[in-house]
What we know:
- It is a single chain.
- The chain is mostly helical.
- The protein has helices at 5-26, 28-47, 51-81, 87-119.
- It has one domain: Orthogonal Bundle (Helix Hairpins).
- Helices cover 85% and strands 0% of the residues.
- Helix 1 (5-26) packs across helix 2 (28-47) and helix 2 (28-47) packs antiparallel against helix 3.
- The longest helix has 33 residues, at 87-119.
- It is flat.
Amino acid sequence: MKDSYLGKRIRGGGYAIKGAWILLKTEPSIQVQAVISIAVCIAGFYFDITKTEWIFQVLAIGLVLSTEGLNSSIEGIADFVHPDFHSKIGYIKDVAAGAVLFAAITAVIIACFIYLPYLFPAFFS
C-alpha cells in the first residue's frame, strides 16, 4: 500500500496538510489573512449571503492564501540561495509580493461587491 498509487496520493495529501499547518504556525501574513478569512466567513453567515456570493468569497480567500503561501515559498528559496542582499533576489521577492497584492486587491473588490449592498441597502436598491 505504501508505494501504491493511492498510498502515494495519501502521503502527498499529508505533506500538503503539514505545509498548510507550517504556514499557519510560522507566517504572520498568513495568520492575519486567516483571521480576516474567518471574520469574512462569520459576516457571510450573519448576512446570509447567497450561494453564488459564497462561491466568490471562498475563491477569493483561497486565492489570497494560496498566493501568500507561494510568496512565502519563493522568499524562502531566494533567501536560501542567496542569503545576502542581491538586487535580483530583491526583484524576485518584490514580484512575488506584488502577486499577493493583486490577489488581495481582487479579494477586497469581491468583498465590496458582496457586502456593500448588505451594509448600505439604501444605496443599492
